TrEMBL record, chain A:
Record's keyword annotation contains Manganese: no
Keyword set, alphabetical order: Cell membrane, Membrane, Transmembrane, Transmembrane helix, Transport
GO cellular component terms, A-Z: plasma membrane
CDD domains: TM_PBP2
Biological process according to GO: transmembrane transport
Matching InterPro entries: ABC_transporter_permease, MetI-like, MetI-like_sf
Family indicated by similarity: Belongs to the binding-protein-dependent transport system permease family.
Annotated ranges, domain ABC transmembrane type-1: 72-295
Residue ranges of the TM segments: 12-32, 76-97, 106-127, 162-188, 208-229, 274-296
Gene3D superfamilies xrefs: MetI-like (1.10.3720.10)
Protein name: Sugar ABC transporter permease
Protein localization: Cell membrane
From TrEMBL, chain B:
Family: Belongs to the binding-protein-dependent transport system permease family.
Any single GO CC term annotated in Swiss-Prot or TrEMBL for this entry: plasma membrane
Bilayer topology: Multi-pass membrane protein
Single GO BP term: transmembrane transport
Pfam families attached to this UniProt entry: BPD_transp_1
Protein name: Carbohydrate ABC transporter permease
Organism for this UniProt entry: Gemmobacter lutimaris
């Protein structure tokens, strides 16, 4: 006799709160933003469907496109600095920490992770004070090693400000790649390392030839997390340089550009439709990056099963 | 012989690099805290000196405590963080249990749907979230922040917790079922206590971004009564930017609670990170 399945209500009860909150505050607003970017106000201040006109304005109209491409280029450089400095330094620190019989490794781990738990407000202002020519900690320290001529008000110069901020952000977040790589290195089985040592592969060549290929998937995950985080960054720039991302928009990234456009700043009026257009463009950029990672990189990474 | 010497050199090199980086990591925090305890003159005369009897001064802290309503800000931050964490853990664990325990149509799809939020930042929906909060009259309430942070924390919580819940012994749950426990009792009385370490990991991971967030407090709840400590210290520092004693004291006051919490929970955090990756 075919038994009729009864409805298992408890599954719905378990899922409902999470799905409701998540859908209402994450998915619906996201589509709301995407939708809003397709509309605009006409002369009589009524909302009209604009199709892709907002995007044409953002990418092509000289009043908007200059700021947009500037923010995008700055954001790309921000990301490049993270990839070139944060991840290699994180890997190096993790490799050193995971070496067996290292003393004080718990202390180093705890200390190096401290900047990551601090808020952007603290990080931005502390570094602003340290690099400030008024206080003189940075010039004083460079003077002590005879390099005073190298000092410049880094945060105030157009050519250095963005790189300086990127390095501050690296300082703050280097703990995350360090921890994830450290965990990946610990999970390599001892037999693999012992086999390598039997074959005479030790030290750096062991790291390059044995460990690095094994932790490549973790490096891939870190890269995509860095990408999403960087193209979504806002707080550090806002705290250190204000919403105008000075000097002369040299540190303007997509997050600050979105904030200024949507909420307005000083003489500029807020424009929700263009704001939504920028948010949609950011969504597109992040989506392209994530898809590129998932389909072009992750599928080619070799995974080893132990 | 030469092998041993080489290994000593290598250990020495490793410590040298790690100590250098530790100094880089701690130096800014150290400079801020020691200078917050000095008089204005001493801050500029010798910024790297420790506060001595001649230079010790608490004037910065007095200004901060007189001016900003830091206690209120701190309470707001605590309320928002604790309430959001409670909902993230509760709802996250419930959904994770449903996804890992039962086979039903759309299980896989539901898991993917909830995991989507790990990659897509909630900030991109800000424009629509603000309109929604205005429409429902929740602007400038802590409820708005709690709702947003709950949604923000859920994807990662569901993802991590369902990994852990797969490891809870099926025999135990089936024994409970034979003894006549219903599904809710099995979840609350049997499974939840067993995944407590995983809950702690999720709590720490969700806590840092919620406590430190500036974006949503700035947009959804900037009023005096609902400012969080992060927004409050940002505004305060902006107003007192030339009063170095006050700025350094405010920064120290913002650093110390987080630092203490971190030092208490750091073992848990590190164990959580390494356990997650080893699996």
């Amino acid at each position: 006799m075919a038994q009729r399945k009864h409805v298992r209500w408890h599954i719905a009860v378990f899922l409902a709160p999470a799905v409701l909150v998540y859908t209402a505050l994450m998915i619906v607003p996201l589509f709301g933003t995407l939708n809003l970017s397709l509309f605009n106000l006409d002369e009589t201040k009524t909302r009209v469907f604009a199709g892709l006109a907002n995007f044409a304005t953002l990418f092509g109209d000289p009043r908007w496109s200059g700021a947009f491409w500037n923010a995008l280029a700055n954001n790309a450089w921000f990301f490049v600095v993270h990839m070139l400095v944060q991840n290699p330094v994180g890997i190096l620190l993790a490799a050193l920490l995971s070496s067996p019989r290292l003393r004080f490794s718990a202390f180093y781990r705890t200390a190096i992770f401290i900047p990551t738990i601090l808020s952007f407000v603290i990080v931005g202002f502390v570094w602003k004070l340290i690099l400030s020519p008024i206080w003189g900690i940075a010039p004083g320290m460079l003077d002590a090693v005879g390099l005073k001529s190298l000092f410049a008000p880094w945060l105030g110069k157009e050519e250095y400000a963005l790189t300086t901020l990127a390095l501050i952000s690296v300082w703050q977040f280097v703990g995350i790649p360090m921890m994830l790589i450290y965990a990946a290195l610990l999970s390599i089985p001892d037999e693999v390392i012992e086999a390598a040592e039997m074959d005479g592969v030790t030290g750096w060549s062991q790291f390059w030839k044995i460990k690095l290929p094994l932790i490549l998937p973790s490096i891939g995950i870190i890269s995509i997390l860095t990408f999403v985080g960087n193209f979504n960054a806002f707080d550090l720039i806002y705290v250190a340089q204000g919403a105008l991302a000075g000097p002369n928009f040299a540190t303007d990234i997509l997050g600050t550009f979105l904030y200024r456009t949507f909420f307005g700043f000083q003489l500029q009026l807020g424009d929700p439709h263009m704001g939504a257009t920028i948010a949609t463009a950011m969504f597109g950029i992040i989506l392209v990056g994530v898809c590129f990672y998932l389909f072009a990189i992750q599928t080619r990474l070799r995974r080893y099963q132990f | 012989m030469s092998q041993a010497r080489q290994s000593i050199a290598r250990t020495f090199g490793a410590h040298a690099i790690l100590i250098t980086y530790t100094v880089i990591a701690l130096f800014p925090v150290f400079v801020t805290v020691i200078n917050s305890l000095k008089s204005r003159k001493a801050i500029f005369a010798d910024p790297l000196a420790l506060p001595g009897p001649a230079t010790f001064d608490l004037v910065g802290y007095q200004t901060v405590l007189k001016q900003g309503d830091f206690f209120q800000y701190f309470l707001n931050s605590m309320t928002v963080t604790v309430a959001s964490l409670f909902f993230v853990l509760m709802f996250g664990a419930m959904a994770a249990f449903a996804l890992s325990e039962y086979r039903f149509r759309g299980n896989m799809l539901m898991g993917l749907y909830l995991a989507l939020g790990i990659m897509i930042p909630i900030r991109l929906g800000t424009v629509a979230i603000l309109q929604m909060m205005v429409a429902s009259g929740l602007v400038n309430t802590l409820t708005a922040l709690i709702l947003v942070y709950t949604a923000q924390g859920l994807p990662l919580a569901v993802f991590i917790l369902s990994e852990f819940m797969r490891n809870v012994s099926a025999d135990l749950k089936n024994a409970g079922r034979i003894d006549g426990l219903n599904e809710y009792t099995i979840f609350f009385r049997l499974v939840l206590p067993l995944v407590r370490p995983a809950m702690a990991t999720v709590a720490v991971f969700s806590l840092i971004p919620i406590w430190n967030d500036l974006w949503f407090p700035l947009i959804l709840a900037p009023s005096e009564a609902t400012k969080t400590i992060t927004l409050g210290s940002q505004v305060f520092i902006g107003q007192f930017v030339t009063n170095w004693n006050a700025v350094l004291a405010a920064l120290s006051l913002a650093i110390v609670p987080v630092l203490v919490l971190y030092l208490i929970f750091s073992r848990q955090l590190i164990r959580g990170i390494t356990a997650g990756a080893v699996k």
